[in-house]
Amino acid sequence: MKSGKLIVFSAPSGSGKTTLVHHLLDQKLPLQFSVSATSRPPRGKEVEGKDYNFITPTEFQAQIKKDAFIEYEEVYKDTYYGTLKSEVARIWSQECHVVFDIDVQGGLAIKKQYPEQTLAIFVQPPSIAELEKRLRQRKTETEEALKQRLEKAAYELSFAPQFDRMVVNDELERAKKEVLALVKDFIG
Ligand code: 5GP
Fold first, then answer.
1. Domain regions of the chain by residue span
2. Which of 2, 65, 75, 89 has its CA 20 to 30 A from that of 171?
3. What is the pLDDT of residues 73-95, one digit of tens each?
4. Which atom of ligand 1 is nearest to the CA of 82?
C-alpha cells in the first residue's frame, strides 16, 4: 500500500471522541494511530512517541519552516499541535490506514488535502444541554471556564456539516458499533 486511507475523528471536548478512537484501535484492523507533535509538555501518564511527540516550541517552529506538517494548529494560546508528513508516510509504509484524533480545523484540513482518501467523522455530544450537564457533574470547571467550553463547543458544532459522517455519542455502546461499521465499510 503506497498511500492508504485516512480516518479523522474530531469533536468538541467532552464528546467522548478519545474513547471511540481507542475502541477502534483495539480491533484487529490494519489501523494505526497518528501520533501528533505538540509543543506542550507531557501530562500525567502520557508517553513520548505514543501519545504525542513532545517537542520544544523552537523545534515546532523549525518543523513549520521545513514544511514538515500536513496540518498544524495553535489549538490553545502558544500551544501548537500538528501532524507530521513523516508520521503518515510511516504508517502507510506499514500497510496500515491512519487514524487521527485532532481538532475540528485540523480534521477539515486533512479532508481538504486528501478528499478521496479521507473519512472525516464528527463525534457529537447529544446536545449542548447534555454537554453542560456532564461538565457541571464533573465539577472541575469554574463558572467562567464552563462558559468558555460551552461557547467553544457551540462554535465547533457549527463545523459538523462539513464532515463526511456524524456520530452522536448519546449511548456509548451504540456509538462504538456505529463507528466500527463506518470504518470497516470505508477501508473495505
Ligand atoms: P490535548 O492537549 O487535550 O491532548 O489536546 C488538545 C486538542 O488538540 C484536542 O482537541 C486534540 O484533538 C487536538 N490535537 C491533537 N493533536 C492534534 C494535531 O496534530 N493537529 C490538530 N489540529 N489538533 C490536534
1. 6-187
2. 75
3. 998 778 899 999 999 999 999 99
4. 19
Cell representation of residue 170: 448519546
Backbone φ, ψ for residue 47 (5° rounding): -115, 130
Contacts of 108 (CB under 8 A, 6+ apart): 10, 120, 159, 162, 163
Cell of 50: 505514543
The predicted model scores a pTM of: 0.91
Cα(83) to centroid of ligand 1, in Å? 10
CA nearest neighbour of 99 among 18, 181, 1, 164: 18
How far is 87 from 68, CA to CA, in rounded Å? 10
Going from the Cα of 165 to the center of ligand 1, the distance in angstroms, rounded, reads 20
Task: State the pLDDT at residue 161.
Answer: 95
For 4-27, how does the pLDDT look when each residue is reduced to its tens digit (9 = 90+)? 999 999 998 778 898 999 999 999
Q: Could you tell me where the DSSP H helices lie in 39-163?
A: 57-65, 85-93, 104-113, 128-138, 143-157
Best residue for ligand 1 mutational test, from 35, 78, 81 (most atoms within 8 Å of Cβ): 81
Query: Which atom of ligand 1 approaches the CA of 79 most closely?
Result: 2
Structural element, H or E, at residue 19: helix 17-25
Report helix angle 17-25 to 172-187, nearest 10: 50
Per the document, the length of the chain is 188
